C-alpha cells in the first residue's frame, strides 16, 4: 500500500508541476487536500508520513472518528461535504476548515459552537456554480452579501470559495466564472485568497483557471470500492 500511495503522490505532484508552468500559480502555491472519505486510518497515516498534511472528509461522524483516532498526528482536517445543522457541533470540534458554508443559519450556529470551543475555523463559501439542483451552495449572485455575513463572524475566518463544476460539458466556462467570482470576492476581502476547485478528474484545468486548493482522493488512494 505504501509503495502504491507514494507512486500516486509523486505522479500527482509531477502533474501539478507540469500544469503550473502554464498557469498563474507556482507549484508551491497549490495546496492538496487528500480526500480520505471511506479510507482507512492506515491509508491516511501512510499519506501523512509521505508529506500530505491536509485531509478532507464528507461526513461528520467519520471526521470525528478519524480525528480522535489520529489526534497524535498534526493533520489539518477539511470538512468538504454538505452541512447538516445537527452535525455542526461535531464539525466545529474536529475540523480546521469547512468548505461548504451556504446558509446564514449554518454560519451563525457554527460561529457559536466555535466560540464555545474558543477556536477559530477557516471557512470557504460553497457557490453552486453549475446551478444544479442536486448540489449545495449559494447562487453566485448572493456571494458578496453572504460573504459580508461570514466575515462578520468572530470565530470564522473567511478564506475563499469552493465550487464543484460539472465534470463534462461547460466545466471550463464554469471554472472561468468561478475565477471571476473569486477575484470579485478578493477585491473586497483580500484574505479570502483560496479558490477550492478541482478533483481527480479535472484538477489540471482547475489550476489553469486559478485554483490553489485541489481536492484529490482517487488519484492518491486508488478507486473506492
Strand and helix layout:
Layout: H1 2-20, E1 31-35, H2 41-49, E2 54-57, H3 60-69, E3 76-79, H4 88-94, E4 97-101, H5 104-117, E5 121-127, H6 143-151, E6 156-163, H7 171-188, E7 194-196, H8 203-208, E8 213-216, H9 218-221
Parallel strand pairs: 1-2, 1-8, 2-3, 3-4, 4-5, 5-6, 6-7
Helix pairs in contact: 3-4, 4-5
Tell me what you see in this structure.
- This protein is an alpha/beta fold and 225 residues long.
- It has one domain: TIM Barrel, CATH 3.20.20.
- The chain has 9 helices and 8 strands.
- Strands 7-6-5-4-3-2-1-8 form an 8-stranded parallel β-sheet.
- Strand 2, helix 3 and strand 3 form a beta-alpha-beta unit.
- The longest helix is centred in the N-terminal third of the chain and has 19 residues.
- The model has no long low-confidence stretch (mean pLDDT 95).
Q: Give the strand line-up of the largest sheet.
A: 7-6-5-4-3-2-1-8
Largest sheet: 8 strands, parallel
Which CATH top level class fits? Answer: Alpha Beta
SS field, number of helical segments: 9
Summing up helix and strand content along with how strands pair, one would put the structural category as alpha/beta
Q: Give, in order, the helices and strands.
A: HEHEHEHEHEHEHEHEH
Query: What is the CATH superfamily classification?
Result: Alanine racemase
Question: What share of residues is helical?
Answer: 40-55%
Amino acid at each position: 500500500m505504501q509503495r502504491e500511495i507514494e507512486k500516486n503522490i509523486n505522479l500527482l505532484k509531477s502533474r501539478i508541476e507540469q500544469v503550473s508552468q502554464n498557469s498563474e500559480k507556482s507549484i508551491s502555491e497549490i495546496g492538496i487536500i487528500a480526500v480520505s472519505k471511506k479510507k482507512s486510518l492506515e491509508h491516511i497515516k501512510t499519506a501523512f508520513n509521505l508529506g500530505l498534511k491536509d485531509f478532507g472528509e464528507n461526513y461528520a461522524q467519520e471526521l470525528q472518528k478519524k480525528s480522535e483516532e489520529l489526534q497524535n498526528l498534526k493533520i489539518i482536517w477539511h470538512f468538504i461535504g454538505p452541512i447538516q445543522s445537527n452535525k455542526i457541533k461535531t464539525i466545529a470540534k474536529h475540523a480546521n476548515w469547512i468548505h461548504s458554508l451556504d446558509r446564514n443559519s449554518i454560519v451563525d450556529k457554527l460561529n457559536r459552537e466555535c466560540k464555545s470551543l474558543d477556536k477559530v475555523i477557516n471557512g470557504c463559501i460553497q457557490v453552486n456554480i453549475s446551478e444544479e439542483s442536486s448540489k449545495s451552495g449559494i447562487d453566485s449572485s448572493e456571494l458578496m452579501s453572504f460573504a459580508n455575513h461570514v466575515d462578520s463572524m468572530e470565530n470564522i475566518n473567511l478564506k475563499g470559495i469552493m465550487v464543484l463544476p460539472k465534470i463534462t460539458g461547460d466545466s471550463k466556462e464554469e471554472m472561468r466564472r468561478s475565477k471571476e467570482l473569486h477575484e470579485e470576492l478578493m477585491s473586497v476581502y483580500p484574505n479570502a485568497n483560496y479558490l477550492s476547485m478541482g478533483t481527480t478528474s479535472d484538477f489540471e484545468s482547475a489550476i489553469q483557471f486559478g485554483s490553489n486548493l485541489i481536492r484529490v482522493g482517487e488519484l492518491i488512494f486508488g478507486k473506492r470500492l
